Amino acid sequence: MSRQKAYVASVGFTQVGDHWNKSLLDLAVEASRGALKGLGGRKVDQVIVGNMFSAVGASQEHLGALVTSALGLHGTPAFKVEAACASGSSAFNVGYNLVRSGAIGSALVVGVEKMRDLEPEEASQALAMAESAEYTQFVGATFAALNGLLARLYMEQEDVTRDELSAMPVLDHANAVTAAHAQFRKAIAPEVVSRSAMIADPLRLFDCAPVGDGAAATLIVNEDALSGSKGGRVEVLGGKIATNEFSVYEREDMLDFKATREAFRGAMAEAGLAPGKLSLVEVHDAFSVVGALSLEAMGFSERGHGSKDVKAGKYSRGGDLPINTFGGLKARGHPVGATGMYQIVEAFLQLTDQAGKNQVEGAKYAATQNIGGVDSTSAVHVFGRGS
């Protein structure tokens, strides 16, 4: 099979939030129909659904066939991809590689999660499935608790202050004010973060991404399918997934996000780009410490300086490298199985000049970084403005 170019031809997405009157399927279909508008009347070759815990959250599996049936795409091959919070971007990576390999001409990829129907304790237990059931879950350690330990180590070992750790949530909320699909569109001050309720010392409520419902979808096509599509286009220049030692406490250096580092290097090499060429990056900041360590792993900040650089304005919309241009996980929201797809949709909006008041002027290249577990899986994709 010949190697093809792959493009994102169109996208669809819902607002992130409390969708009490919509089911998991309703959200997936709404986002998918938006993305399918770019197909120009052709039939999509493959449907891939990214989702983390539909069995727990909605008592539903077999999502591929469920979504194709609801869309009237009978006969179309379909399946679900799961990689914890990296489920959406991992599903995208499968679609990208299928199109790029020449195996198919088009793929609809949709990430979806329904979280708000769960009680807080149930949502916490569901998220804990990203860690070891035999060890971590067995002793009752929540996902927030693990990240709290990581944050304490980061602050003490790298001399990071409370205000510096608060900088990324502050940045995210500032960017979300003008993002119509964001869950929380309100600016906050550093003291709002530092005075919010304690979740897992030193992490407070505003250090942590919220629970929400949402779905985001993309249509990936080759050049032949692109000729019949409508609207703008964005080329997928590279995409890699890497893994780390599964549990953070097993690692020689817990502050080294090796999976992100390797995925980023691989994706950038495949794209043939130097990191300095990027116009923006959508960073996985499920917790403030995770966002900081991700920036360091990708080489944008020196070790121990991720939070410090955010506070200094390096990553603001008018800074050296804008990040989380629609609010990131903290303010746009984090419907886990859909999060990676929201990042990719946002990169598409930026590179097709559809970002409105959130537009990064002159954006030419963008990267997205999506984590499952505590950097147990990391998926990075690189995109370029279509010619």
Explain what you see.
The chain has 387 residues and is an alpha/beta fold. The protein has 2 domains: 7-118 and 212-234, Peroxisomal Thiolase, Chain A, domain 1, CATH 3.40.47; 139-207 and 237-385, 3-Layer(aba) Sandwich (Peroxisomal Thiolase, Chain A, domain 1), CATH 3.40.47.10. It is built from 15 helices and 11 strands. Strands 3-2-4-7-1-8-11-10-9 form a 9-stranded mixed β-sheet, with helices on both faces. Strands 5-6 form a two-stranded antiparallel ribbon. Strand 5 and strand 6 (203-204) form a beta hairpin. The longest helix is centred in the C-terminal third of the chain and has 16 residues, at 336-351. The model has no long low-confidence stretch (mean pLDDT 95).
Work out the strand percent: 15-25%
Radius of gyration: 19 Å
Helix content: 25-40%
Low-pLDDT residue intervals, each spanning 5 or more residues: none
Order of helices and strands: EHEHHEHEHHHHHEEEHEHEHHHHEE
Strand order of the largest sheet: 3-2-4-7-1-8-11-10-9
> What's the CATH architecture name of the largest domain?
3-Layer(aba) Sandwich
What is the CATH C-level name of the largest domain? Alpha Beta
Shape: globular
Structural class of the helices, strands and pairings?
A: alpha/beta
Total count of strands: 11
What is the CATH superfamily classification of the largest domain? Thiolase/Chalcone synthase
How many structural domains in the coordinates?
2
End-to-end distance = 25 Å
